[in-house]
Amino acid sequence: MGVNLAVMGATGLVGEVMRQVLEDRRFPYGSIKFLASKRSAGKTLSFAGKTFVVEEATPDAFRGVDIVLSSTPASVSREISPMAAKAGAVVVDNSSAWRMDPNTPLVVPEVNPHDIDKHQGIIANPNCSTIQMVVVMKPLHDAARIKRVVVSTYQASSGKGASGLTEFDRQIEAIGKGQTVPPVTAHKHQLAGNCLPDDWVLGEDDYTEEELKMMKETKKIMGDDSIEVSATCVRVPVRTGHSESLNLQFEKPISAAQAREILGRSPGIIVLDDASKGQVPLAQDCVGKDETFVGRIRLDRSAPHCLNLWVVADNLRKGAATNAIQIAEVLAKKMGK
Ligand SMILES: NC(=O)c1ccc[n+]([C@@H]2O[C@H](COP(=O)([O-])OP(=O)(O)OC[C@H]3O[C@@H](n4cnc5c(N)ncnc54)[C@H](OP(=O)(O)O)[C@@H]3O)[C@@H](O)[C@H]2O)c1
Q1: Which are the catalytic amino acids?
Q2: How far is the CA of 80 from the centre of ligand 1 (A)?
Q3: Which of 45, 216, 241, 305 lies 20 to 30 Å (CA to CA) from residue 101?
Q4: In terms of DSSP bridges, do strands 242-250 and 228-232 run parallel, antiparallel, or are they unpaired?
Q5: With a 6 A CB cut-off, is 158 part of the ligand 1 pocket?
Q6: pLDDT at 1
Q7: How many angstroms is it from 71 CA to the middle of ligand 1?
Q8: How much distance in Å is there from the Cα of 301 to the middle of ligand 1?
Q9: Whole-number pLDDT of residue 124
Q10: CA gap 226, 263 in Å, rounded
Q11: With b meaning 16 or more CB within 10 Å and e meaning fewer, what string describes 186-202?
């Protein structure tokens, strides 16, 4: 028994972490296959101590598959995910293709697991920066009702996929050897030694698409259109692990101590909040972890009922693979496998 699983985009950065998380969480699969583009068909990869041949993601590849864990570019998902759903599989998709589609649930299991039941063959995994933010917002919202969040992100190179991370590594290597940094092709500017406030496509009103995703997806996941979100997204010279500064404004009063206590007993969250002892969430310490880390919880004295927090998570795990696999775990149970 166990579900018949396909990992699509298996050769990418998220696909690689997907394999690791499936093993770590002992996902109950019966069969598993790994799909990518025509370019990768025939390549081999290892999983659970065995070697697998990568197959091209064609409509036939989804025959008999129960769940597809997909992490391809959005344009590819727009074409292929409906084919997989038509073949009878449920697709959990990491791309932005279906997130704001009214017929597609956008799910973070700690926040809105009930929305999984509304799927029509595709379930969207939210944007990585949004996932870690709403994991922290949800229990605080339940306690004191969030009216507005102002978020600034410090996002890692690996959020740009394999091409971004390879470019960043080459820049660091060249700088270390005193060589000329190679021309930039993946990130918008040289990332080594820089913070990039424009590393995404520009969208409406001069906001980047990443900022717009955080603003729109938060309302959909939280199921509350009244929550106002103001986002500034910045790429920083970190390999993996997104950090965020959150300023939350509440309807009701809430103290830093209350927030610490609420977050400390909430699922998927680890509170690391003793700056006097150097206990703060750091991107490097969060790599390879499934939880969202929160610290620097402080009262914002400049406005009523406001808190400041520092939130960190592994963008490839909770921001992508782990969240998708948590959804797949719920689906597998519902399928009775
Ligand atoms: N990186 C993150 O932190 C993160 C977080 C959340 C969500 N996401 C989203 O997850 C998706 C994947 O991101 P990534 O960082 O893993 O990117 P990536 O490293 O560039 O990998 C892309 C994957 O998609 C596959 N692919 C490309 N064209 C395809 C096609 N025509 N048919 C089937 N497969 C195809 C690639 O296969 P080939 O090797 O054969 O080209 C590769 O396996 C993106 O939509 C991204 O926005 C990423």
Answers
A1: 128, 242
A2: 13
A3: 241
A4: unpaired
A5: yes
A6: 79
A7: 5
A8: 43
A9: 98
A10: 22
A11: bbbebbbebebeebbee
Q: pLDDT for 7-22, tens place per residue?
A: 999 999 999 999 999 9
CA-nearest residue for atom 35, ligand 1, is 37
CA of 258 to the centre of ligand 1 (A): 40
> Distance from first CA to last CA of the chain, Å, rounded?
6
Residue with tokens 């990992």: 7
129 lines ligand 1 (CB under 6 A): no
In the block, tokens 């909770």 appear at 318
Q: What is the pLDDT of residues 147-194, one digit of tens each?
A: 999 999 999 999 999 999 999 999 999 999 999 999 999 999 999 999
From the list 337, 332, 331, the residue with the least C-alpha distance to 118 is 331
What element of type H or E holds 124?
strand 122-124
Kindly state if the Cβ of 319 falls inside 6 Å of ligand 1.
yes
Which CATH code fits 3-125+320-334? 3.40.50.720
Residue of 37, 92, 315 with the most ligand 1 atoms within 8 Å of its CB, for mutation: 37
User: CA 203 to CA 209: how far, in whole Å?
Assistant: 5
Protein residue whose Cα sits closest to atom 43 of ligand 1? 9
Spans of all domains in the chain? 3-125+320-334, 130-315
Cα–Cα dist 291/263, whole Å: 12
126 lines ligand 1 (CB under 6 A): no
